[in-house]
Specification:
This protein has a single domain, classed as Metal-dependent hydrolases (TIM Barrel). The relative contact order is 0.17. It has an 8-stranded parallel beta sheet with strand order 1-3-4-5-6-7-8-9. A two-stranded parallel sheet has the order 2-10. The protein has 287 residues and is an alpha/beta fold. The radius of gyration is 18 Å and the shape is globular. The chain starts with 11 loop residues before the first strand and ends with a helix. The protein has 10 helices and 10 strands. The longest helix is centred in the last third of the chain and has 16 residues.
Length: 287
Protein backbone atom coordinates (compact mmCIF):
# COMPACT_ATOMS: atom_id res chain seq x y z
CA UNK A 1 0.00 0.00 0.00
CA UNK A 2 1.33 3.46 -0.94
CA UNK A 3 1.82 5.75 2.06
CA UNK A 4 -0.08 8.99 2.58
CA UNK A 5 1.88 12.02 1.40
CA UNK A 6 3.48 10.06 -1.38
CA UNK A 7 5.37 11.10 -3.40
CA UNK A 8 7.15 13.55 -1.09
CA UNK A 9 7.44 17.20 -2.16
CA UNK A 10 10.32 17.77 -4.57
CA UNK A 11 10.19 14.24 -5.95
CA UNK A 12 12.33 13.57 -9.00
CA UNK A 13 12.05 11.19 -11.94
CA UNK A 14 15.75 10.67 -12.65
CA UNK A 15 15.45 8.84 -15.96
CA UNK A 16 13.18 9.82 -18.86
CA UNK A 17 13.57 10.43 -22.59
CA UNK A 18 12.12 13.02 -24.95
CA UNK A 19 11.68 12.29 -28.65
CA UNK A 20 10.91 14.73 -31.41
CA UNK A 21 8.96 16.10 -32.96
CA UNK A 22 11.00 14.23 -35.55
CA UNK A 23 10.14 16.90 -38.12
CA UNK A 24 12.33 19.28 -36.08
CA UNK A 25 14.71 16.79 -34.51
CA UNK A 26 15.29 13.94 -36.99
CA UNK A 27 16.74 10.69 -35.70
CA UNK A 28 20.22 9.50 -36.63
CA UNK A 29 20.32 7.66 -39.91
CA UNK A 30 21.95 4.64 -38.30
CA UNK A 31 19.89 3.50 -35.31
CA UNK A 32 18.57 0.31 -33.78
CA UNK A 33 14.88 1.31 -34.03
CA UNK A 34 12.45 4.15 -34.74
CA UNK A 35 10.15 5.13 -31.85
CA UNK A 36 7.13 7.39 -31.87
CA UNK A 37 7.40 10.96 -30.64
CA UNK A 38 7.38 11.61 -26.88
CA UNK A 39 7.14 15.37 -26.50
CA UNK A 40 8.02 17.65 -23.58
CA UNK A 41 4.33 18.51 -23.17
CA UNK A 42 3.52 14.81 -22.75
CA UNK A 43 6.35 14.43 -20.26
CA UNK A 44 5.05 17.40 -18.26
CA UNK A 45 1.59 15.86 -18.16
CA UNK A 46 3.04 12.55 -16.93
CA UNK A 47 5.00 14.27 -14.16
CA UNK A 48 1.94 16.23 -13.01
CA UNK A 49 -0.10 13.05 -12.95
CA UNK A 50 2.51 11.34 -10.77
CA UNK A 51 3.00 14.35 -8.50
CA UNK A 52 6.70 14.80 -9.35
CA UNK A 53 8.27 18.23 -9.82
CA UNK A 54 11.84 17.48 -10.95
CA UNK A 55 13.07 15.46 -13.89
CA UNK A 56 16.29 14.26 -15.54
CA UNK A 57 16.32 13.83 -19.32
CA UNK A 58 18.66 11.19 -20.70
CA UNK A 59 19.95 11.25 -24.28
CA UNK A 60 18.56 8.22 -26.16
CA UNK A 61 20.63 6.10 -28.54
CA UNK A 62 18.79 7.11 -31.72
CA UNK A 63 20.01 10.71 -31.43
CA UNK A 64 23.63 9.66 -30.97
CA UNK A 65 25.68 12.81 -30.19
CA UNK A 66 23.07 15.29 -31.47
CA UNK A 67 21.72 16.73 -28.21
CA UNK A 68 19.51 19.45 -29.73
CA UNK A 69 16.25 17.66 -28.84
CA UNK A 70 17.14 17.20 -25.19
CA UNK A 71 18.43 20.78 -24.93
CA UNK A 72 15.21 22.12 -26.43
CA UNK A 73 13.23 20.14 -23.83
CA UNK A 74 15.44 21.35 -20.97
CA UNK A 75 14.65 24.93 -21.98
CA UNK A 76 10.92 24.18 -21.75
CA UNK A 77 10.85 22.20 -18.51
CA UNK A 78 11.38 23.85 -15.12
CA UNK A 79 13.46 21.95 -12.56
CA UNK A 80 15.02 19.75 -15.22
CA UNK A 81 18.56 18.46 -15.77
CA UNK A 82 20.08 16.41 -18.57
CA UNK A 83 22.54 13.63 -19.37
CA UNK A 84 24.04 14.02 -22.83
CA UNK A 85 26.17 11.98 -25.23
CA UNK A 86 29.22 13.69 -26.73
CA UNK A 87 32.14 12.85 -29.02
CA UNK A 88 35.58 12.77 -27.36
CA UNK A 89 36.79 15.88 -29.20
CA UNK A 90 34.12 18.19 -27.74
CA UNK A 91 35.54 21.65 -27.00
CA UNK A 92 35.66 23.35 -23.60
CA UNK A 93 33.40 26.08 -24.97
CA UNK A 94 30.70 23.54 -25.85
CA UNK A 95 31.02 21.88 -22.45
CA UNK A 96 30.55 25.26 -20.79
CA UNK A 97 27.44 25.97 -22.87
CA UNK A 98 25.97 22.56 -22.07
CA UNK A 99 26.57 23.05 -18.36
CA UNK A 100 24.76 26.39 -18.54
CA UNK A 101 21.80 24.61 -20.19
CA UNK A 102 21.49 21.99 -17.44
CA UNK A 103 23.63 19.06 -18.56
CA UNK A 104 25.07 17.24 -15.53
CA UNK A 105 26.42 13.97 -16.94
CA UNK A 106 27.45 12.03 -20.03
CA UNK A 107 26.03 8.64 -20.94
CA UNK A 108 27.95 5.64 -22.21
CA UNK A 109 25.31 3.37 -23.75
CA UNK A 110 26.59 -0.08 -24.62
CA UNK A 111 23.55 -2.23 -23.84
CA UNK A 112 21.25 -0.80 -26.54
CA UNK A 113 23.58 -1.70 -29.39
CA UNK A 114 24.10 -5.24 -28.13
CA UNK A 115 27.48 -4.99 -26.47
CA UNK A 116 31.17 -4.28 -27.06
CA UNK A 117 34.49 -5.59 -25.83
CA UNK A 118 35.56 -4.62 -22.31
CA UNK A 119 38.49 -2.70 -23.77
CA UNK A 120 36.17 -0.72 -26.05
CA UNK A 121 33.82 0.03 -23.15
CA UNK A 122 36.75 1.20 -21.02
CA UNK A 123 37.87 3.57 -23.77
CA UNK A 124 34.38 5.06 -24.06
CA UNK A 125 34.16 5.53 -20.28
CA UNK A 126 37.60 7.16 -20.11
CA UNK A 127 36.72 9.54 -22.96
CA UNK A 128 33.46 10.56 -21.28
CA UNK A 129 35.09 10.97 -17.86
CA UNK A 130 37.74 13.26 -19.29
CA UNK A 131 35.01 15.58 -20.61
CA UNK A 132 33.05 15.36 -17.36
CA UNK A 133 35.99 16.55 -15.26
CA UNK A 134 35.65 20.18 -16.38
CA UNK A 135 32.34 20.70 -14.59
CA UNK A 136 32.28 17.77 -12.17
CA UNK A 137 29.65 15.89 -14.17
CA UNK A 138 29.15 12.14 -13.78
CA UNK A 139 29.47 9.28 -16.26
CA UNK A 140 26.26 7.30 -16.68
CA UNK A 141 26.77 3.66 -17.65
CA UNK A 142 24.26 1.46 -19.45
CA UNK A 143 26.12 -1.85 -19.64
CA UNK A 144 25.33 -5.53 -19.20
CA UNK A 145 25.52 -6.89 -15.65
CA UNK A 146 28.38 -9.17 -16.68
CA UNK A 147 30.51 -6.10 -17.45
CA UNK A 148 30.30 -4.61 -13.94
CA UNK A 149 32.99 -6.73 -12.32
CA UNK A 150 35.63 -6.34 -15.07
CA UNK A 151 34.93 -2.60 -15.22
CA UNK A 152 35.07 -2.12 -11.45
CA UNK A 153 38.79 -1.21 -11.14
CA UNK A 154 38.42 1.47 -13.81
CA UNK A 155 35.21 2.84 -12.30
CA UNK A 156 36.85 3.10 -8.88
CA UNK A 157 39.72 5.10 -10.38
CA UNK A 158 37.63 7.56 -12.42
CA UNK A 159 38.14 11.25 -11.61
CA UNK A 160 34.34 11.70 -11.53
CA UNK A 161 31.39 9.76 -10.17
CA UNK A 162 29.73 6.94 -12.13
CA UNK A 163 26.01 6.11 -12.28
CA UNK A 164 24.75 2.67 -13.33
CA UNK A 165 21.41 2.59 -15.18
CA UNK A 166 18.51 0.27 -14.42
CA UNK A 167 19.77 -1.76 -11.43
CA UNK A 168 22.98 -2.38 -13.37
CA UNK A 169 20.76 -4.70 -15.48
CA UNK A 170 21.06 -7.25 -12.67
CA UNK A 171 17.98 -9.44 -12.86
CA UNK A 172 16.38 -11.43 -10.04
CA UNK A 173 17.72 -14.64 -11.60
CA UNK A 174 21.30 -13.42 -12.00
CA UNK A 175 24.14 -15.00 -10.07
CA UNK A 176 25.49 -12.94 -7.20
CA UNK A 177 28.78 -11.93 -8.86
CA UNK A 178 27.52 -8.71 -10.51
CA UNK A 179 25.54 -7.76 -7.39
CA UNK A 180 28.60 -8.21 -5.17
CA UNK A 181 30.64 -6.06 -7.53
CA UNK A 182 27.98 -3.35 -7.69
CA UNK A 183 27.40 -3.19 -3.93
CA UNK A 184 31.16 -2.96 -3.38
CA UNK A 185 31.26 -0.01 -5.79
CA UNK A 186 28.34 1.64 -4.02
CA UNK A 187 30.15 1.33 -0.71
CA UNK A 188 33.00 3.49 -2.06
CA UNK A 189 30.64 6.47 -2.32
CA UNK A 190 32.02 7.08 -5.82
CA UNK A 191 29.23 5.19 -7.60
CA UNK A 192 25.46 5.63 -7.87
CA UNK A 193 22.72 3.27 -9.05
CA UNK A 194 19.33 4.03 -10.58
CA UNK A 195 16.65 1.65 -9.36
CA UNK A 196 14.84 2.29 -12.63
CA UNK A 197 13.49 0.28 -15.53
CA UNK A 198 12.25 -2.63 -13.40
CA UNK A 199 10.61 -4.07 -16.52
CA UNK A 200 14.08 -4.32 -18.09
CA UNK A 201 15.29 -6.81 -15.48
CA UNK A 202 12.12 -8.91 -15.07
CA UNK A 203 9.20 -9.84 -17.29
CA UNK A 204 6.89 -8.29 -14.71
CA UNK A 205 8.00 -5.09 -12.91
CA UNK A 206 5.87 -6.22 -9.97
CA UNK A 207 8.03 -9.33 -9.55
CA UNK A 208 8.41 -9.70 -5.78
CA UNK A 209 12.08 -10.64 -6.17
CA UNK A 210 12.97 -7.08 -7.23
CA UNK A 211 12.22 -5.69 -3.75
CA UNK A 212 15.12 -7.45 -1.96
CA UNK A 213 17.42 -6.39 -4.82
CA UNK A 214 16.40 -2.75 -4.34
CA UNK A 215 16.84 -3.00 -0.56
CA UNK A 216 20.28 -4.61 -0.93
CA UNK A 217 21.47 -1.75 -3.14
CA UNK A 218 20.05 0.85 -0.75
CA UNK A 219 21.68 -0.85 2.21
CA UNK A 220 25.07 -0.71 0.48
CA UNK A 221 24.85 3.09 0.35
CA UNK A 222 21.50 4.81 0.97
CA UNK A 223 22.92 8.14 -0.21
CA UNK A 224 23.78 6.88 -3.69
CA UNK A 225 20.44 5.57 -5.02
CA UNK A 226 17.97 7.41 -7.27
CA UNK A 227 14.80 6.29 -9.06
CA UNK A 228 13.57 6.77 -12.61
CA UNK A 229 10.50 5.72 -14.58
CA UNK A 230 12.31 5.21 -17.91
CA UNK A 231 9.32 6.94 -19.56
CA UNK A 232 8.10 6.65 -22.35
CA UNK A 233 9.11 2.97 -22.20
CA UNK A 234 10.78 2.48 -25.56
CA UNK A 235 9.87 -0.47 -27.81
CA UNK A 236 10.84 -4.00 -26.82
CA UNK A 237 14.20 -5.16 -28.12
CA UNK A 238 12.72 -8.16 -29.92
CA UNK A 239 10.57 -5.84 -32.06
CA UNK A 240 13.32 -3.44 -33.06
CA UNK A 241 14.31 -3.03 -36.69
CA UNK A 242 17.69 -1.36 -37.27
CA UNK A 243 17.59 1.69 -39.57
CA UNK A 244 13.91 1.13 -40.39
CA UNK A 245 11.55 4.10 -40.80
CA UNK A 246 8.66 2.12 -39.30
CA UNK A 247 7.57 3.67 -36.01
CA UNK A 248 7.28 1.08 -33.25
CA UNK A 249 4.89 1.46 -30.31
CA UNK A 250 6.04 2.13 -26.79
CA UNK A 251 5.63 -0.64 -24.24
CA UNK A 252 2.37 -0.51 -22.32
CA UNK A 253 3.88 0.06 -18.90
CA UNK A 254 1.98 1.65 -16.01
CA UNK A 255 4.26 4.56 -15.07
CA UNK A 256 2.24 5.33 -11.95
CA UNK A 257 2.59 1.69 -10.97
CA UNK A 258 6.38 1.94 -11.33
CA UNK A 259 6.49 4.90 -8.95
CA UNK A 260 4.21 3.15 -6.47
CA UNK A 261 6.71 0.29 -6.29
CA UNK A 262 9.29 2.50 -4.56
CA UNK A 263 7.70 2.54 -1.06
CA UNK A 264 6.81 -1.14 -1.44
CA UNK A 265 10.40 -1.99 -2.26
CA UNK A 266 12.04 0.17 0.39
CA UNK A 267 9.52 -0.09 3.26
CA UNK A 268 10.95 3.03 4.88
CA UNK A 269 9.60 6.57 4.44
CA UNK A 270 12.95 8.21 5.14
CA UNK A 271 14.65 6.04 2.51
CA UNK A 272 11.92 6.81 -0.01
CA UNK A 273 12.51 10.53 0.53
CA UNK A 274 16.26 10.07 0.05
CA UNK A 275 15.80 8.20 -3.21
CA UNK A 276 13.19 10.55 -4.66
CA UNK A 277 14.29 13.92 -3.26
CA UNK A 278 17.56 14.25 -1.36
CA UNK A 279 19.81 12.10 -3.51
CA UNK A 280 18.73 13.60 -6.87
CA UNK A 281 19.35 17.09 -5.48
CA UNK A 282 22.92 16.09 -4.68
CA UNK A 283 23.62 14.19 -7.90
CA UNK A 284 22.05 16.60 -10.39
CA UNK A 285 22.55 19.90 -8.60
CA UNK A 286 18.91 20.91 -8.22
CA UNK A 287 18.40 24.12 -6.27
Amino acid sequence: MVAMGFPPPGGCDSHVHVIGPKSRFPLARERTYTPRDALPSELSAMLRRLGLTRVVLVQPSFYRTDNTCILDALAQLPDSRGVAVLPPQTSDEELDALDDQGIRGLRVNIATSGGASIDAIKKSIEDAARLCERHGWHVQLFVAAAAIEPLAPLVRALPVAAVFDHFGLIGPDADDGPLRALTALLETGHVWVKISGAYRIAADPNDARIAPLARTLCAANPERIVWGSDWPHTPRHDLRKPNSEEELPFQEIDTQGLLDLVPRWLEDDAMVRRVLVTNPVRLYGFD
